[in-house]
Write a structure and sequence with these properties.
This protein is α+β, with helices and mostly antiparallel strands. The chain has one domain. It has 3 helices and 3 strands.
């Protein structure tokens, strides 16, 4: 389970982040809100797959953070273990990370989506050490 209150707390995240020197930030550009759900699901799985590849390449502390609420199930049963534990990852927001500031720190200006017709960005991060 990855959404609050089951995600790492901001205090834990801050402590954990001190263990990492690098991160891979991934941004998906979503053109239409009608395709958001299946793309968010695919993006969450991509983060987990890339994290696994990094782990197998020797980065044993690789830790992926997806974007937004988990949508692997239509409705979470809150049962343990998670049905999709291979792909479930907490989001940066759920861990207390300011996504806008994080992206700004690396030179990317994320804009607020003002309308459902506007495209949006899905932003995720894999911590690497």
């Amino acid at each position: 389970m990855t959404c609050p209150p089951y995600s790492p707390t901001p205090e834990y995240t801050e402590k954990m982040m001190k263990e990492y020197l690098s991160a891979l930030i991934m941004i998906y550009d979503i053109q239409s809100s009608e395709k958001e759900r299946p793309l968010r699901k695919r993006f969450r799985k991509d983060v987990a797959k890339i994290e696994r590849e990094m782990f197998l390449d020797g980065y044993y502390k690789a830790f992926g953070m997806a974007c937004g609420p988990c949508n692997l199930c239509r409705e979470c049963t809150l049962s343990y273990p998670c049905k999709y534990e291979d792909f479930a990852r907490p989001s940066m927001e759920a861990c207390g990370i300011d996504v806008y500031q994080t992206l700004s720190n690396v030179g990317y200006q994320l804009k607020v989506v003002r309308d459902y017709e506007d495209g949006c960005k899905f932003c995720s991060m894999i911590l690497i050490e």
